[in-house]
UniProtKB/TrEMBL annotation:
InterPro entries, per database record: TPR-like_helical_dom_sf
Coiled-coil positions: none
Sequence intervals crossing the membrane: none
Keywords, comma-separated and alphabetical: Repeat
Gene3D superfamilies noted in UniProt: Tetratricopeptide repeat domain (1.25.40.10)
Protein name: Pentatricopeptide repeat-containing protein, chloroplastic
Record flagged with keyword Repeat: yes
Organism: Alexandrium monilatum
Length: 225
């Protein structure tokens, strides 16, 4: 049944064999295995994850589209792996499109999917788009990007993704504002902020930020610069 194929696809994923994972999916449908839909979703998600690990973003996106075509349950794992594949390939438009496709599904409530889309924008210095996504999940006002009312709960990774997007584009003022507005800033946040100051030749601010990080972060001091 589907469970057997799901296990086979998962083995291929762990082995980094994206072709094998896709072949097992094809065998599953050719055999017209009668089983639980949930197991079929697991099999597809494992194949998408295998493609994501092997930088095959087109195949990952195609598999997620196939799931919709076959009326399979598309969940947060489907979208997070697909968005991550696009992020690694610097395909920010595709990542945002997948986020929009999540629509009213439960996946659009997950910060993991949003974090991936924001990071994808940041990787290509699309800082304005990254901030649009960040504002959509942190603003109390309703957003057209969210499938239904009720904000996504941002995490420290969400903040770091937005700060990093601004830092890569040398938008140090925006990076600073985001950092000051975050209650969960960590070493990664400070590192991105210092990088933004470095690009903007704001050495004094970089030194002050590093000093502030050393005062707030307990334990050994990281070698940030």
């Amino acid at each position: 049944d589907y469970s057997w194929y799901a296990a086979a696809v998962n083995r291929c994923k762990k082995a980094g064999d994206w072709r094998g994972a896709c072949e097992e999916l094809c065998r599953m449908w050719r055999a017209a295995a009668a089983g639980r839909q949930g197991a079929a979703t697991v099999a597809h998600n494992a194949a998408i994850s295998a493609c994501e690990r092997c930088a095959r973003w087109r195949r990952a996106v195609a598999l997620s589209a196939e799931m919709l075509h076959r009326c399979l349950e598309v969940d947060v794992f489907t979208y997070s792996a697909s968005v991550s594949a696009c992020e690694k390939a610097r395909q920010w438009q595709r990542a945002v499109a997948l986020l929009s496709a999540a629509g009213c599904r439960e996946a659009d409530r997950s910060p993991v999917v949003w974090n991936g889309a924001i990071s994808a924008c940041g990787a290509t210095e699309q800082w304005a788009q990254a901030l649009t996504l960040f504002d959509a999940i942190t603003s109390p006002a309703p957003s057209s990007l969210l499938g239904r009312e009720g904000a996504v709960q941002p995490t420290v990774i969400t903040c770091n993704a937005a700060v990093g997007a601004c830092a890569r584009a040398a938008q140090w003022q925006l990076a600073l504002l985001l950092s000051l507005g975050s209650s969960t800033a960590d070493v990664v946040t400070y590192g991105s902020l210092i990088g933004a100051f470095y690009k903007g030749s704001s050495w004094e601010l970089a030194a002050l930020t590093l000093d502030g990080m050393h005062q707030k972060q307990p334990g050994p001091k990281p070698n940030t610069i």
